[in-house]
Amino acid sequence: MTTESTAKQRKLGIWSWAFYDWANSAFTTVIVTFVFSEYVSAIGGDRNLGTAQWTMMITISGLAIAVLAPILGSIADHGGRRKPWLFAFTWIMGLLTCGLWFIKPEASYVPMALLLIGLANIAFELGVAFNNSMLADVVEEEQIGRWSGWAWGLGYVGGLSVLTLCLALFIFGDPAVFGLDVKAKEEVRIMGPIVGLWVILFSIPLFLFTPDKKSAGKSMSEAVTEGLATLWRTIVSLRDYKNIAIFLLGRMLYADGLATLFSLGGIFAGNAYGMSTQEILTFAIILNITAGAGAIAFAWIDDMIGSKRTIIISVLAIAILGTLLLFFEDKSIFYILAALLGIFIGPTQAASRTMMARLAPSNMQTEFFGIYAFSGKATAFIAPFLVGVLTLQFDSQRIGMAVIPVIMLIGLAIFLRVKEPARRTT
Length: 426
Fold this sequence. Notes:
This protein has 18 helices and no strands. It is an all-alpha fold. The longest helix is centred in the first third of the chain and has 41 residues, at 3-43.
């Protein structure tokens, strides 16, 4: 194989890896953040109770992810290959999401909806952990920041594409395609299968073209035994990775705030600002445009000024803009502030992934990305729990949501102590 063809094959593998973000972002955008979060919290009749139920589901699934991600990551590091795990979790998420078609707008369907979305969310996050762990292997070190950012940007474009498609066909379509029954909320429920099939279809390039580590030649029992033993040693000796530990602790908190913002964004727009499904989808499109633009723009900035500065700027901006959102009731101001906030969401996520890829030892990438996933979920119960409790206590979602910027700023304060690793020169 010629040098030119090898370079093209490598570039195809990188783009296919990045394209996975295009595929799976449909789940977070439509299911977790905007459409089904609002739909499920509303069909029970009591929106505040629905918000509390939704946050509890996010909390429980987050705790499951926190336990499973580092364990499976360590096992995968000893087994070698990652794509079989990623394939399994991608299909599980896609099929469970397709099942949301059967969730009718009746209170009796709420438990089933929460179960399907909770399990799908676990599969989604575990898949993300395996996908993230491939970054340092498929991308050259000096370009990790931009590719991580470009992938996040692709994710927002993918989420935007699904939302636009759903908006045009099912919400603003008159009549909606396929003769959907609006009274039975079929125009909302159809988005479950659309997202599920989208994720499965557009993840195919990664499985075809992105290279994977070679199998270590170990049986599953050997990989499990050695993986668990290594994980335990890593956790016990985490003090030897003090810089990584500080990063994970800080990220644990600001990621918790950001994840809660995502999971409750559609609910907050619907309850606090009285937005309809059409308005929430419009807001989601605006947010995805600015978030995608921010992720792509900051992709170069990450490599220029470093991941640490990128994260500091982004988290601080989100906390400030998120706080301002709590003090206004005008929808126009909401759109403006939310659009500005969106610019900094992608850079926070992409630069955090870049930082982890640079900090983690090369032979422990999947394990540390499992712990990275753990750090994003270990405190996942704090922000949603506090939001739910305060919302019920004060009968105000605005008061409940005020927890989010506070938690993010505490995480940022811890993160400031992280020493960014020196980048290799070539």
